[in-house]
Amino acid sequence: MCLIAFAWxxxxxxxxxxxxxxxxxxxxxxxxxxxWNDMPVIAGRDLEAGGTWLGVSPxxxxxxxxxVRDPRLPQTGxxxxxxxxxxxxxxxxxxAHARALCRDAARYRPFNLLTFDAQAAFYLGNRPEPRLQAVxxxxxxxxxxDFNTPWPKTRQLMARLQAWLDExxxxxxxxxxxxxxxxxxxxxxxPDTGVGRExxxxxxxxxxxxxxxxxxxxxxxxxxxxxxxxxxxxRFGPEGRPDGQSDMVW
Length: 250
Known about the structure:
This is NRDE family protein. The chain is of the alpha+beta class and 250 residues long. The chain is 20% helix and 34% strand.
């Protein structure tokens, strides 16, 4: 995943409302959102490394990971996607998992990870050093920088999620519309992550359209206060071509 906004413990019905886009090379093989046969996970699957970018468990857990956009960082270590599956299939609660992972985080490729269970939520990262942070109730955002870094697309998605909450809406169409926004940021708002101004501009919208790289999936997660919920995934091919949708409840 490369863009996430979520509301934690502020909606009267939903403990967690999460909207996110996964940006990836189109050639990287992946399976659509589904229930996995080998572990208690509902997610799409990265067929190259075996993990996932975003998933839920039937017990009401959720996990989502992004990479860190910094060309100076070596992309070595254990796959980031395994962080999500290890969390979803594990037994430890969110605080215990966060403490244990923080001790082991340097073994993984550069990552940002969000974990949610029935009682708590945590952000964990490993660059420039391992760190963890408990998530407070409210609307938060994450892209390919530190938690709540105010990149333009992160701020905009958070604002549109907040507007959806304020309206008391049940229709999720406005959230998918927010994830589909292709408006680039103004040049003076662009971050400098070391990839050059032209690429920063191309990567700045919520939805990235490209022939070789771009938004592969837009996903919504809604988890209620009993642990039940719904996950919807819309998939895209090269140049943003629609490539199917999955909608699952548990």
